[in-house]
Write a structure and sequence with these properties.
75% of the residues lie in helices and 14% in strands. By secondary structure, it is an alpha+beta fold.
């Protein structure tokens, strides 16, 4: 385990991570810090625990939207594949009927 110190909203935290994951963890911290700053600018002066809670809810909302969009995209892709297979089935049946008449 690697241990690094990260800073969120001016407060330092010691965090463990797997070796080699330090850069990824720092990227995540930068992302969360940005979201905290964004939330803080919208709601104004608040306590740190409330800011953390609101930031978590904001991130969860974004994650939920991403999952929903991915699910919808998967359904659309599946519908397109089914339509393509049906179209190919009709073409094969048409070609087979023409070969049978020849």
């Amino acid at each position: 385990m690697s241990k690094i110190t990260v800073t969120l909203y001016g407060r330092e935290y010691a965090v463990n991570c797997d070796p080699g994951e330090e850069v990824r963890l720092k990227q995540l911290v930068e992302f969360v810090e940005g979201k905290m700053q964004e939330v803080a600018s919208r709601i104004g002066n608040t306590t740190e625990p409330r800011l953390l809670m609101l930031t978590c809810l904001s991130l969860a909302d974004q994650l939920f939207d991403v999952h929903q969009n991915a699910r919808n995209s998967l359904i659309q892709e599946e519908d397109l594949l089914v339509a393509a297979v049906d179209h190919l089935r009709e073409r094969v049946a048409n070609i087979a009927s023409q070969v049978g008449r020849a």
